[in-house]
Amino acid sequence: MTPSFVFLDTSVLDGQQYNLNSTALVSFIPVAKKHKITLLLPHPTEQEIRRHIKERAREALTRLGTAFREARKSAPFLTGWEHFPEDVSDKVDEAVRVALYEWRLFLGRFNVERLDYEAINLRDVMHWYDTLTPPFREGKKRKEFPDAFALAILAAHAAATGKIIAVVSEDADFQLACDRYHSLLYFKSLPALTEVLLADPSEIEALRAAVLGDPSLLEIGIAIHATESFLSFHIDNRYDVHEWKVAQARITDMRVVALGVGECKVTFEAEIDFEVHLGWSEWDEATEETTSESDWFIETHPFSGAAKLALEANKHIRSVPLVSLNEHLVSFEETPRRR
Protein backbone atom coordinates (compact mmCIF):
# COMPACT_ATOMS: atom_id res chain seq x y z
CA MET A 1 0.00 0.00 0.00
CA THR A 2 1.34 3.43 -0.95
CA PRO A 3 1.56 5.71 2.09
CA SER A 4 -0.85 8.63 2.17
CA PHE A 5 1.40 10.75 4.36
CA VAL A 6 5.11 11.34 4.84
CA PHE A 7 6.95 12.65 7.89
CA LEU A 8 10.51 14.00 7.60
CA ASP A 9 12.43 13.90 10.85
CA THR A 10 14.85 16.74 11.58
CA SER A 11 17.71 14.26 11.08
CA VAL A 12 16.81 14.13 7.36
CA LEU A 13 17.27 17.88 6.94
CA ASP A 14 20.34 17.83 9.18
CA GLY A 15 21.78 15.12 6.92
CA GLN A 16 21.17 17.34 3.89
CA GLN A 17 22.85 20.28 5.69
CA TYR A 18 19.52 22.12 5.24
CA ASN A 19 20.18 22.33 1.54
CA LEU A 20 16.51 22.48 0.53
CA ASN A 21 17.50 22.01 -3.12
CA SER A 22 19.54 18.85 -2.52
CA THR A 23 19.15 15.93 -4.89
CA ALA A 24 17.39 13.77 -2.31
CA LEU A 25 14.75 16.42 -1.53
CA VAL A 26 14.20 17.65 -5.09
CA SER A 27 13.90 14.08 -6.43
CA PHE A 28 11.18 13.30 -3.92
CA ILE A 29 8.92 16.29 -4.60
CA PRO A 30 7.48 15.17 -8.02
CA VAL A 31 7.05 11.62 -6.71
CA ALA A 32 5.11 12.91 -3.70
CA LYS A 33 2.88 15.00 -5.97
CA LYS A 34 2.27 12.07 -8.32
CA HIS A 35 1.13 9.84 -5.45
CA LYS A 36 -0.75 12.69 -3.72
CA ILE A 37 1.28 12.26 -0.55
CA THR A 38 0.77 14.87 2.16
CA LEU A 39 3.72 16.12 4.21
CA LEU A 40 2.90 15.94 7.91
CA LEU A 41 4.47 18.60 10.11
CA PRO A 42 3.97 18.01 13.85
CA HIS A 43 4.39 21.16 15.90
CA PRO A 44 7.43 19.96 17.91
CA THR A 45 9.24 18.97 14.70
CA GLU A 46 8.56 22.29 12.99
CA GLN A 47 9.77 24.16 16.06
CA GLU A 48 12.96 22.09 16.10
CA ILE A 49 13.55 22.66 12.38
CA ARG A 50 13.04 26.41 12.71
CA ARG A 51 15.44 26.49 15.66
CA HIS A 52 18.09 24.58 13.68
CA ILE A 53 17.69 26.95 10.71
CA LYS A 54 18.10 29.99 12.94
CA GLU A 55 21.17 28.50 14.64
CA ARG A 56 22.79 27.68 11.29
CA ALA A 57 22.09 31.17 9.94
CA ARG A 58 23.67 32.78 13.01
CA GLU A 59 26.66 30.43 12.84
CA ALA A 60 27.17 31.19 9.13
CA LEU A 61 27.24 34.95 9.78
CA THR A 62 29.63 34.49 12.67
CA ARG A 63 32.00 32.60 10.36
CA LEU A 64 31.64 35.25 7.66
CA GLY A 65 32.40 37.97 10.19
CA THR A 66 35.53 36.13 11.31
CA ALA A 67 36.63 35.62 7.71
CA PHE A 68 36.03 39.31 6.94
CA ARG A 69 38.13 40.46 9.88
CA GLU A 70 40.94 38.04 9.01
CA ALA A 71 40.90 39.18 5.37
CA ARG A 72 40.97 42.82 6.40
CA LYS A 73 43.84 42.14 8.77
CA SER A 74 45.93 40.11 6.32
CA ALA A 75 45.26 42.26 3.23
CA PRO A 76 44.36 45.81 4.35
CA PHE A 77 45.50 47.12 0.96
CA LEU A 78 42.41 45.54 -0.63
CA THR A 79 39.81 47.28 1.54
CA GLY A 80 39.44 50.02 -1.05
CA TRP A 81 38.63 47.49 -3.78
CA GLU A 82 35.01 47.81 -4.90
CA HIS A 83 34.56 44.03 -4.74
CA PHE A 84 35.95 43.66 -1.23
CA PRO A 85 33.18 42.00 0.83
CA GLU A 86 31.41 43.87 3.57
CA ASP A 87 31.16 42.76 7.17
CA VAL A 88 27.74 41.10 7.50
CA SER A 89 28.13 39.76 11.04
CA ASP A 90 25.63 42.36 12.32
CA LYS A 91 22.89 41.29 9.88
CA VAL A 92 21.78 38.20 11.82
CA ASP A 93 18.09 39.11 11.91
CA GLU A 94 18.03 39.66 8.13
CA ALA A 95 19.79 36.35 7.52
CA VAL A 96 17.32 34.50 9.75
CA ARG A 97 14.40 36.04 7.88
CA VAL A 98 15.85 34.95 4.54
CA ALA A 99 16.51 31.44 5.84
CA LEU A 100 12.97 31.04 7.17
CA TYR A 101 11.56 32.43 3.91
CA GLU A 102 13.43 29.67 2.03
CA TRP A 103 11.89 27.14 4.43
CA ARG A 104 8.40 28.48 3.66
CA LEU A 105 9.11 28.26 -0.07
CA PHE A 106 10.17 24.63 0.39
CA LEU A 107 6.96 23.80 2.24
CA GLY A 108 5.00 25.47 -0.55
CA ARG A 109 6.07 22.67 -2.90
CA PHE A 110 4.12 20.13 -0.84
CA ASN A 111 0.60 19.62 0.37
CA VAL A 112 1.32 20.24 4.08
CA GLU A 113 -0.78 19.27 7.07
CA ARG A 114 0.30 20.70 10.41
CA LEU A 115 -0.47 18.65 13.51
CA ASP A 116 -0.68 19.81 17.12
CA TYR A 117 -0.85 18.05 20.48
CA GLU A 118 -4.61 17.68 20.95
CA ALA A 119 -4.86 14.00 20.06
CA ILE A 120 -1.93 12.67 22.08
CA ASN A 121 -1.98 11.02 25.49
CA LEU A 122 0.67 12.57 27.74
CA ARG A 123 0.53 9.53 30.02
CA ASP A 124 1.78 7.40 27.12
CA VAL A 125 4.70 9.73 26.50
CA MET A 126 5.68 9.76 30.18
CA HIS A 127 5.42 5.95 30.25
CA TRP A 128 7.88 5.79 27.35
CA TYR A 129 10.16 8.12 29.29
CA ASP A 130 9.97 6.10 32.51
CA THR A 131 10.56 2.77 30.75
CA LEU A 132 13.19 4.02 28.24
CA THR A 133 10.93 3.05 25.36
CA PRO A 134 12.19 4.43 22.00
CA PRO A 135 12.70 7.18 21.03
CA PHE A 136 13.90 7.51 24.64
CA ARG A 137 17.16 5.70 25.37
CA GLU A 138 20.06 5.88 27.80
CA GLY A 139 22.56 8.75 27.78
CA LYS A 140 21.95 11.64 25.40
CA LYS A 141 18.71 10.04 24.21
CA ARG A 142 17.23 10.22 27.72
CA LYS A 143 15.37 13.46 27.00
CA GLU A 144 14.12 13.00 23.44
CA PHE A 145 10.82 14.73 24.16
CA PRO A 146 10.47 16.50 20.75
CA ASP A 147 10.81 13.14 18.96
CA ALA A 148 8.51 11.44 21.47
CA PHE A 149 5.80 14.08 21.02
CA ALA A 150 6.18 13.87 17.23
CA LEU A 151 5.86 10.08 17.35
CA ALA A 152 2.76 10.25 19.55
CA ILE A 153 1.19 12.84 17.22
CA LEU A 154 1.91 10.68 14.14
CA ALA A 155 0.54 7.53 15.77
CA ALA A 156 -2.64 9.35 16.78
CA HIS A 157 -3.06 10.77 13.27
CA ALA A 158 -2.60 7.36 11.68
CA ALA A 159 -5.15 5.85 14.04
CA ALA A 160 -7.65 8.63 13.34
CA THR A 161 -7.32 8.46 9.54
CA GLY A 162 -6.66 4.75 9.09
CA LYS A 163 -3.87 5.66 6.66
CA ILE A 164 -0.22 4.67 6.32
CA ILE A 165 2.47 7.20 7.23
CA ALA A 166 6.00 6.94 5.83
CA VAL A 167 8.40 8.00 8.57
CA VAL A 168 11.78 9.10 7.21
CA SER A 169 14.56 9.40 9.77
CA GLU A 170 18.26 8.75 9.99
CA ASP A 171 17.78 8.11 13.71
CA ALA A 172 17.73 4.34 14.35
CA ASP A 173 15.64 4.86 17.49
CA PHE A 174 12.82 6.11 15.29
CA GLN A 175 12.89 2.75 13.55
CA LEU A 176 12.53 0.97 16.89
CA ALA A 177 9.64 3.28 17.74
CA CYS A 178 7.90 2.73 14.39
CA ASP A 179 8.13 -1.04 14.89
CA ARG A 180 5.41 -0.64 17.48
CA TYR A 181 2.84 0.62 14.96
CA HIS A 182 1.41 -1.12 11.90
CA SER A 183 0.62 2.24 10.30
CA LEU A 184 4.09 3.80 10.59
CA LEU A 185 6.51 2.61 7.91
CA TYR A 186 10.13 3.49 8.59
CA PHE A 187 12.60 4.60 5.91
CA LYS A 188 16.23 5.33 6.72
CA SER A 189 16.54 7.88 3.92
CA LEU A 190 14.38 9.90 1.56
CA PRO A 191 15.90 8.26 -1.55
CA ALA A 192 14.89 4.87 -0.11
CA LEU A 193 11.26 6.05 0.06
CA THR A 194 11.48 7.63 -3.40
CA GLU A 195 12.71 4.34 -4.80
CA VAL A 196 9.80 2.40 -3.28
CA LEU A 197 7.28 4.87 -4.71
CA LEU A 198 8.63 4.58 -8.23
CA ALA A 199 8.00 1.83 -10.78
CA ASP A 200 7.46 -1.89 -10.30
CA PRO A 201 9.40 -2.86 -7.14
CA SER A 202 10.84 -5.98 -8.79
CA GLU A 203 12.20 -3.88 -11.67
CA ILE A 204 13.75 -1.39 -9.29
CA GLU A 205 15.36 -4.11 -7.20
CA ALA A 206 16.71 -5.93 -10.27
CA LEU A 207 18.21 -2.67 -11.56
CA ARG A 208 19.72 -1.78 -8.20
CA ALA A 209 21.23 -5.26 -7.84
CA ALA A 210 22.72 -5.09 -11.34
CA VAL A 211 24.32 -1.70 -10.71
CA LEU A 212 25.65 -2.68 -7.28
CA GLY A 213 26.96 -5.93 -8.77
CA ASP A 214 29.55 -3.93 -10.69
CA PRO A 215 29.65 -0.28 -9.59
CA SER A 216 33.19 0.30 -10.87
CA LEU A 217 32.23 2.77 -13.62
CA LEU A 218 30.18 4.82 -11.18
CA GLU A 219 33.00 4.77 -8.62
CA ILE A 220 35.46 5.94 -11.29
CA GLY A 221 33.02 8.71 -12.26
CA ILE A 222 32.79 9.83 -8.63
CA ALA A 223 36.59 9.86 -8.30
CA ILE A 224 36.99 11.92 -11.48
CA HIS A 225 34.31 14.41 -10.42
CA ALA A 226 35.89 14.82 -6.97
CA THR A 227 39.31 15.39 -8.54
CA GLU A 228 37.96 18.06 -10.88
CA SER A 229 35.62 19.92 -8.54
CA PHE A 230 36.76 19.69 -4.91
CA LEU A 231 38.36 22.50 -2.96
CA SER A 232 40.39 21.54 0.08
CA PHE A 233 41.88 22.91 3.27
CA HIS A 234 43.25 21.61 6.55
CA ILE A 235 41.31 22.24 9.76
CA ASP A 236 44.58 23.06 11.55
CA ASN A 237 46.15 26.20 10.09
CA ARG A 238 49.61 24.99 11.11
CA TYR A 239 49.50 22.64 8.12
CA ASP A 240 49.41 23.41 4.41
CA VAL A 241 47.86 21.07 1.86
CA HIS A 242 50.54 20.97 -0.85
CA GLU A 243 48.79 18.40 -3.00
CA TRP A 244 46.04 15.81 -2.87
CA LYS A 245 44.56 13.19 -5.15
CA VAL A 246 41.73 10.70 -5.06
CA ALA A 247 43.00 7.17 -4.54
CA GLN A 248 39.64 5.38 -4.67
CA ALA A 249 35.89 5.85 -4.34
CA ARG A 250 33.59 3.17 -2.93
CA ILE A 251 29.79 3.02 -3.11
CA THR A 252 28.31 2.24 0.32
CA ASP A 253 24.64 2.64 -0.62
CA MET A 254 22.68 3.49 -3.74
CA ARG A 255 19.02 4.12 -4.56
CA VAL A 256 17.24 4.43 -7.90
CA VAL A 257 15.16 7.62 -7.85
CA ALA A 258 14.19 8.00 -11.54
CA LEU A 259 13.87 5.66 -14.51
CA GLY A 260 14.09 6.43 -18.21
CA VAL A 261 14.58 4.45 -21.42
CA GLY A 262 18.06 2.97 -21.20
CA GLU A 263 19.02 5.28 -18.36
CA CYS A 264 18.31 5.97 -14.71
CA LYS A 265 19.10 8.49 -12.01
CA VAL A 266 20.52 7.29 -8.72
CA THR A 267 21.46 8.87 -5.42
CA PHE A 268 24.35 7.35 -3.56
CA GLU A 269 26.44 7.34 -0.43
CA ALA A 270 30.15 6.85 -1.01
CA GLU A 271 33.51 6.85 0.74
CA ILE A 272 36.46 8.51 -0.96
CA ASP A 273 40.08 7.76 -0.07
CA PHE A 274 42.37 10.78 -0.46
CA GLU A 275 46.16 10.81 -0.64
CA VAL A 276 47.18 14.10 0.98
CA HIS A 277 50.59 15.78 0.91
CA LEU A 278 50.95 18.05 3.95
CA GLY A 279 53.61 20.60 4.75
CA TRP A 280 54.41 22.15 8.11
CA SER A 281 57.18 23.82 10.08
CA GLU A 282 59.13 22.26 12.95
CA TRP A 283 61.26 24.00 15.54
CA ASP A 284 64.62 22.28 16.00
CA GLU A 285 65.75 22.72 19.60
CA ALA A 286 69.32 21.67 18.80
CA THR A 287 69.91 24.19 16.03
CA GLU A 288 67.28 26.68 17.19
CA GLU A 289 66.04 26.90 13.63
CA THR A 290 62.75 26.26 11.90
CA THR A 291 62.73 23.45 9.36
CA SER A 292 60.17 22.67 6.67
CA GLU A 293 58.67 19.19 6.83
CA SER A 294 56.25 17.30 4.58
CA ASP A 295 54.71 13.88 4.23
CA TRP A 296 51.88 11.95 2.57
CA PHE A 297 48.81 10.69 4.44
CA ILE A 298 45.67 8.72 3.61
CA GLU A 299 42.26 10.04 4.68
CA THR A 300 38.79 8.67 4.02
CA HIS A 301 35.72 10.92 3.86
CA PRO A 302 32.02 10.11 3.30
CA PHE A 303 30.09 11.91 0.58
CA SER A 304 26.64 11.76 -0.98
CA GLY A 305 25.42 12.73 -4.42
CA ALA A 306 23.61 11.73 -7.57
CA ALA A 307 24.44 10.34 -10.99
CA LYS A 308 22.81 9.67 -14.34
CA LEU A 309 23.63 6.20 -15.62
CA ALA A 310 23.38 4.96 -19.20
CA LEU A 311 22.39 1.29 -19.08
CA GLU A 312 23.03 -1.81 -21.12
CA ALA A 313 20.12 -4.09 -21.97
CA ASN A 314 21.11 -6.30 -19.01
CA LYS A 315 20.84 -3.27 -16.68
CA HIS A 316 24.59 -2.99 -16.15
CA ILE A 317 26.21 0.44 -16.41
CA ARG A 318 27.31 1.38 -19.93
CA SER A 319 28.56 4.83 -19.01
CA VAL A 320 28.14 7.58 -16.42
CA PRO A 321 27.14 10.79 -18.25
CA LEU A 322 26.71 12.92 -15.17
CA VAL A 323 27.87 12.88 -11.54
CA SER A 324 27.19 15.49 -8.89
CA LEU A 325 28.21 15.56 -5.24
CA ASN A 326 26.32 17.44 -2.56
CA GLU A 327 29.63 18.68 -1.12
CA HIS A 328 32.42 20.55 -2.92
CA LEU A 329 34.75 21.15 -0.02
CA VAL A 330 36.90 18.60 1.80
CA SER A 331 38.53 19.43 5.13
CA PHE A 332 41.52 17.25 5.90
CA GLU A 333 42.19 16.38 9.53
CA GLU A 334 45.16 13.97 9.54
CA THR A 335 48.17 15.38 11.40
CA PRO A 336 51.71 14.06 11.72
CA ARG A 337 53.43 13.35 14.98
CA ARG A 338 55.22 16.53 15.96
CA ARG A 339 58.65 16.45 17.43
Keywords:
2 domains; 4-stranded antiparallel β-sheet; about 350 residues; about 40% helix; alpha/beta; 5-stranded parallel β-sheet
Written description of the protein model:
The protein is of the alpha/beta class. It has two domains: 5-196, no CATH class; 201-332. Helices cover 40% and strands 31% of the residues. It contains ten helices and eleven strands. Strands 3-2-1-4-5 form a five-stranded parallel beta sheet. Strand 8 (263-284) and strand 9 form a beta hairpin. Helix 2 packs parallel to helix 8 (190-197) and helix 3 (43-74) packs across helix 6 (145-161). The longest helix is centred in the N-terminal third of the chain and has 32 residues, at 43-74. It is globular. Residues 6-174 form the DUF4935 domain. This is DUF4935 domain-containing protein. Pfam families: PIN_12.
